[in-house]
Design a protein that fits this description.
three-stranded mixed beta sheet; Arc Repressor Mutant, subunit A; alpha+beta; Dna Ligase, domain 1; 2 domains; three-stranded antiparallel beta sheet
Length: 141
């Protein structure tokens, strides 16, 4: 039993290292599975899903469900980022390639404050997504 717990911890560390190497990048479970498959790593799907849930539970990574057409995605939260700043975190989704961009921006925070003060409406940031075209797609016409 001790060996299994140690194995699980090692796999969790491997998964966490992968997210740390991709800061700010939103990855689906499928993206993670595909990465480890390409690397030839011996980490199974069930282990990845279990450890993703564990990393979300302990606050190391965040889980987002952008819309019903997209799979849930995960992003690493560095210890110095977003602590107490959950009210200033936004997402943008490219209509062309589907890329999800994590944004922390005071200007958009002003929009949220405007909605609350002038329209008595609090925006749910975990479910708010701005749609448009990312710079990569707009420059590759």
């Amino acid at each position: 039993m001790t060996t299994r717990a140690k194995y699980s911890t090692k796999q969790k560390e491997i998964l966490l290292d992968f997210f740390k190497q991709n800061p700010g990048v939103h990855l689906s479970a499928g993206d993670v599975i595909e990465h480890f498959k390409k690397e030839g790593a011996t980490i199974g799907q069930a282990t990845i899903y279990r450890n993703l849930d564990s990393l979300v539970s302990d606050g190391t990574i965040a889980k987002f469900k952008i819309d019903e057409d997209s799979p849930a995605c995960f992003v690493y939260i560095a210890p110095h980022e977003h602590k107490g700043d959950e009210e200033n975190c936004y997402h943008c989704k490219c209509n062309k390639c589907g890329k999800i961009i994590h944004v922390s921006c005071e200007d958009v925070k002003a929009l949220q404050e405007h909605f609350l003060e002038d329209h008595d409406f609090k925006i749910d940031l975990k479910r708010t997504v701005f749609y448009g075209i990312c710079s990569d797609c707009s420059s590759s016409k």
